Amino acid sequence: MTTIVxxxxxxxxxxxxxxxxxxxxxxxxxxxAEVRPAFEEAAATGQIFTTFQIVDEHDLxxxxxxxxxxxxxxxxLKDDGxxxxxxxxxxxxxxxxxxxxxxxxxTRAARQGRAT
Length: 116
Prior knowledge:
single chain; alpha+beta; Arc Repressor Mutant, subunit A; two-stranded antiparallel sheet; elongated
């Protein structure tokens, strides 16, 4: 697919903008290191949230394998005592077409800063 770029009035061509949703981490480990703190911070608030809400709020990159890595991250956070399931909601992700997604809430340990 060819993208047409409109030159500026002075004739210069602006550099392409890469939206956050298209920015992709190079490897799984660096992606985890970048996104995990945002989810731990969300867990500490005790508020109910969806994965996409945190991704959108913090402008987080996509993982190398989006179909599997988002779920794996949430499972890791749950296993580490940061999150518990809170129910279901309609996804706010534009490409999800309002599909049902799991909602999360920080555990008591996460809210008290005791989760590891």
